[in-house]
Request: fold
Amino acid sequence: MMDPQLAQALKAAPTNEYLLQGSILDSSLEVLLCRLKGLCDHADSPEEKFVDHEMVYAIKNASIPQPLQYSVRHSLVQPENWQLRYLGHSEMGDKSRHTLIRNCVDVATSDNVLQFLHEVGFRLDHEFVVKGFYFHKGRMKVTVSKIFKMMQQGHTTDNLESIVPSYLVELSVLATAGQDAIAEDMKNFAEQLKPLVQLEKIDHRRLQATGT
Amino acid sequence: MGVVCIFSYAVPEGKSGQQAVDMLQKNVELLGATRSGNFCVDCETYQSNSQNISQRLIHILHNSEHPASCFAALDTGTILVSDLLFDVLMSKLTAAKTGRESFYQQRKGFRIESRGQRYELWDFVIKIGSVSLASNFKGILVEVEYCPCVVASDCWNLIKEMAQSIVGNVADNPPMYIKNKTDPVYSPSDTVNQYLEHFNNFRKTAPQGQPSR
Reply:
């Protein structure tokens, strides 16, 4: 029995993420950043950088084979920023849909979130560091980022090892359900980034199948 | 926001809950306080559901004074402050799918709230709330906030004087929670913790014979 006002607020909250992904080689980074700077908002200010420490927590028990995962993002640039995120399964949809859609709930929290998760029953599954650049155009968000493996647990500044010589490029929008017109906008924007980067809807299940 | 002290006001014998609330409201209005809308603090409790997770309670509280926040308090004392959307994350923990249990489940009939009139009087905010557990009247909580200060020990005497003129000698001593608080700086989590303590006490008391208001 939830407060009707609260229930309404939650219903109106954007929890659907429309997503396109691609990747570029390290050597092409400068060119892509230049292009993004020109296309996105605030072209005259320097691009925004971010360094995040992401920790993925899972909760499981005997009767539930599939663990529930929440990830914690902690900004290493602005250490007071903590975010807790839930990502649902991505839906590929059919050919008429241009982007992936997945449930995405992003919640800013206080700095005791790790202790909280631990006490609730979550355990750390894996962690990594993401460094990259952030752009936005209207409600579209573009990140160009590199994922680093942490060679020593808990060490986020030294002993980092990049996994591949490339950057992950993601174009995403958070919206309420059923706003499929956004996918069209995103497709048009992705067109403008060709041939520097090819942004596509990537089937994660296929990646997982080849990974195991 | 400042320092908040919450007092449980016992309903005088021979009076109904509503009559007691009316009397308190009259008192506050006589002091010169002006009405400034309604307020509500609600609390819903979840318990862990399986053998693998150690027994744990999660209390989810909302306070209309902080309408964009959700407070998740554990029985260990940890309290997480987050965006309102945390409720959606909580629903993932409580969602049961076919053939599998949820990690946590809501305790039925445990929803408790304090709801009532909010007043402003110069540097003070005063709230008179009737507490109801699953729609049954349980008691009255009076909240007195002194806004210009965040150090509890520095403004207890001011709060005491104000609170005594409303609830009488219930306010002779600071609430236990304030007394035992180690960090001198007061935060919204402390208000939520005080409410939680009171709510837990109300839940323990046997249901009253009195009809709800």
